[in-house]
Amino acid sequence: MKQLSDSLLIQSYHKAIELNLSEEFVEQISREIKKRAIQNQLEKTVPRVG
């Protein structure tokens, strides 16, 4: 996860929720978002369709 750009990490978070992936995986992404202190970017993004 450390290799993902902030943008790709946020897209991954939205996609994981959209695909109803495991809560553990979604939480792992969420922790990385918090670690990077980019929650504000998460709130500004709209999940992409497709």
UniProtKB/TrEMBL annotation:
Identify the InterPro entries for this entry: Sda (IPR015064), Sda_sf (IPR036916)
Please identify the protein, giving its name as recorded: Sporulation histidine kinase inhibitor Sda
Top-level taxon: Bacteria
What Pfam families does the record point to?
Sda
